Structures are given as structure tokens and as C-alpha cells.
Amino acid sequence: MALTILAQITAAKGKEALVRAELEKLVPITQAEAGCVQYDLHVDNENPGFFVFYETWESRELWQTHMNAAHLAAYMAATEGAVDAFVLNEMTKIA
Prior knowledge:
It contains three helices and four strands. Helices cover 35% and strands 36% of the residues. It has helices at 16-31, 60-67, 70-78, and strands at residues 3-11, 36-43, 50-57, 83-91. By secondary structure, the chain is of the alpha+beta class.
């Protein structure tokens, strides 16, 4: 069964451009990963420091592989101290 991920990232004030640039780097790499069905990055129209990833993965196991990937570790290092909040929801489509 497919897994849907909703990841919400809030950049620290003054770090919006840095966080956005680092998030954008993740998109093509992740879209090429095994099991990635959809990996879309959004930014709030009123708040340029609020980002949402809407993701669909073939399985939770393949998503976990993604979560342990080197490019995610590089993102975490590059944005250390630049993210105020990170909320992650694992979801299942019901209709």
C-alpha cells in the first residue's frame, strides 16, 4: 500500500532563502529514488518561509530508505539552526 507524507518546514527568520535553496536541491535527487511516486515542494503564498512537501511512496520501507539517504543528511547539515519547525505526517489515502 502506498504511503503519503506531508512534511511541513518553517524556516527561521532571515533564513528563508537558504532553506528554500536546500529544499529545492532535494527534489530531482529524490524524484529519481526507487519507490518515489510523487515528491512535490510547495511554498506558502503569504509566508515565504513556510514549505510543504507532498510525497507519495510505494511503501514505508522505501520512504525509510529515502530518510536515511546521504542527500537528506547533507540537507540537515546545511540547514542546521535555520529551521524553526519541522512537522511530518505519515498518511494513508482513504478516498
